[in-house]
From TrEMBL:
Protein name per UniProt: Serine/threonine-protein kinase receptor
Transmembrane segments: 114-136
Stored InterPro entries: Activin_recp, GS_dom, Kinase-like_dom_sf, Prot_kinase_dom, Protein_kinase_ATP_BS, Ser-Thr/Tyr_kinase_cat_dom, Ser/Thr_kinase_AS, Snake_toxin-like_sf
Domain GS: 169-198
Biological classification of the source: Eukaryota, Metazoa, Spiralia, Lophotrochozoa, Annelida
Main location: membrane
Enzyme class: transferase
Membrane topology of the entry: Single-pass type I membrane protein
Organism name: Owenia fusiformis
Gene Ontology molecular function terms on file: ATP binding; metal ion binding; transmembrane receptor protein serine/threonine kinase activity
């Protein structure tokens, strides 16, 4: 079949009438219109919200398709049909929706929702903060009540301290109780102030550049009171700070009890109260005491143990920073009743923590004792940014202390009188230049007596002290190595003495 035949056989649909209104959409002078497509009925709202109704017919196919497929809304509705006046009875309906809110009300609702979104979290946060503050204040009030009760229990009606405030406690019991409760250093500050008020000074037992040391009594017990003058407040504050460091307590570090400010003879005094040791300093002990091998090793080992504890950093929330003493000498080491040593005088100490990697020098600008200064301090080549440099300075000075101790050892009734290091090379009160000339320029060290070579213990001690006072700081032993070496020597000497006792019995 050809194209012409197809066109001849195609019959176009017949036109039909559609109801029409308003008249401007209709055929001229009629109330209807003719179309071959579709009739429609529509309903819409104008700007004032009034309904506008239309009936008529579509002349264009695309127009009919587009409008007839438009779904109804809340403002426009269209219905279409095919056939003679089929739209005369059509009544389009809007899409049924909940009652709409006027535009101005909608904006008000949006504004309220935004305000609520901001205000509600803010109010909630304020309430939470107030609750936290209330809880903290309540906890603080309870804590203060406990402390006040505890302070009240310390006094009798005549203002004296109760001797039985921790059972049948002594000052040592108070100290032990505070350490077991986690402070690890001295008494709690409240008790420190109470103890300081009850200490009576008895006699002056020493003087130094910082002030005086007195023997005092508290409830019949001896205590040592280090008294700083008001112009030396930085030293007192620094030493108090160091002693109050958590976990500083150690059997070979002087036991700290309290620190306080007081007035005496109209002068402000700064007190540091510690355990009292009747033997005094190692310097005093060596000047009047001849030692055997075992005593030499015990003094050296316990002094080294105290310095090792200072040098060691303990990690954790209840940890302790590493501490370098910076003024190790025989006068700053005390001898306890059991003839062991403890490290004292921490006023020049520096602290270091690996967590912050910062060196805490404090605000005290004083330097150590010139006679015990390491060569790198004398020639000013020490690196103050490296904490190990401070520990190596301590090791050098400790080597000189080992020499002082070992020199007082008697072998077969033969021994030397006490002498300080470099006694034969510098004056009794050497200057900085004196020590630099001897230790840096001449690289001299204390002389080793010939008799030491005849004894294995003294020979080993001589070797050890030489390894402590090397000119090169990096070549020196660590304090831990010194402690372990002396410890092994002490074990051998103890076993030897024990064997001798067995043979004698």
């Amino acid at each position: 079949m050809t194209k012409g035949e197809t066109e001849m056989n195609y019959t176009a649909p017949l036109p039909f009438r559609c109801a029409c209104s308003p008249h401007d959409n209709c055929d001229e002078g009629q109330n209807f219109c003719e179309t071959q497509l579709k009739c429609f009925a529509s309903k819409s709202k104008d700007e004032l919200g009034r309904d506008i109704e239309n009936w008529g017919c579509f002349d264009k196919y695309e127009q009919g398709q587009l409008n007839c497929r438009t779904p109804p809304s809340n403002r426009v509705a269209i219905m279409c049909c095919e056939g003679e006046t089929c739209n005369s009875g059509l009544q389009p309906h809007y899409l049924e929706t909940p009652a709409t809110i006027p535009a101005n009300n909608t904006q008000m609702v949006d504004s309220m929702q935004l305000a609520l979104a901001v205000i509600v979290p803010f109010v909630a946060m304020v309430i939470i903060i107030l609750i936290i503050v209330y809880c903290c204040r309540r906890w603080h009030r309870r804590r203060m009540d406990v402390l006040n009760d505890r302070e009240a229990q310390l006094y009798l009606y005549n203002g004296e301290i109760q001797a039985t405030q921790v059972g049948d406690s002594t000052l040592q019991d108070l100290f032990d109780h505070s350490c077991s409760s986690g402070s690890g250093s001295g008494l709690p500050l409240l008790v420190q102030r109470t103890v300081a008020k009850q200490v009576s000074l008895v006699e002056c037992i020493g003087k130094g550049r910082y002030g005086e040391v007195w023997r005092g009594t508290y409830q019949g017990e001896n205590v040592a009171v280090k008294i700083f003058s008001s112009r030396d407040e930085q030293s007192w504050a620094r030493e108090s700070e160091i002693y109050n460091t958590v976990l500083l307590r150690h059997e070979n570090i002087l036991g700290f009890l309290a620190s306080d400010m007081t007035s005496r003879h109209s002068c402000t005094q700064l007190w540091l109260i510690t355990h009292y040791h009747e033997h005094g300093s190692l310097y005093d002990f060596l000047t009047r005491t001849v030692l055997d091998r075992q005593s030499v090793l015990r003094l050296a080992h316990t002094a080294a143990a105290g310095l090792v504890h200072l040098h060691t950093e303990i990690f954790g929330t209840q940890g302790k920073p590493a501490i370098a003493h910076r003024d190790i000498k025989s006068k700053n080491i005390l001898v306890k009743k059991n003839l062991t040593c403890c490290i004292a005088d921490l006023g020049l100490a520096v602290m270091h923590s690996q967590t912050t990697n910062k060196i805490d020098m404090g605000s005290n600008n004083k330097v150590g004792t010139k006679r015990y200064m390491a060569p790198e301090l004398l020639d000013e080549t020490m690196n103050p940014e490296c904490f190990d440099s401070f520990k190596r300075v301590d090791v050098y000075a400790f080597g000189l202390v080992l020499w002082e101790i070992t020199r007082r050892c008697s072998i077969s009734g033969i021994g030397e009188d006490y002498k300080p290091p470099f006694y034969d090379l510098v004056p009794s009160d050497p200057s900085f230049e004196d020590m630099k000339k001897v230790c840096v320029d001449g690289q001299h060290r204390p002389s080793i007596p010939n008799r030491w070579s005849t004894d294995t213990t003294l020979t080993a001690m001589a070797k050890l002290m030489k390894e402590c006072w090397y000119q090169n700081p990096a070549a020196r032993l660590t304090m831990l190595r010194v402690k372990k070496t002396v410890g092994k020597m002490l074990e051998k000497e103890t076993e030897k003495e024990h064997s001798i006792d067995i043979i004698k019995t």
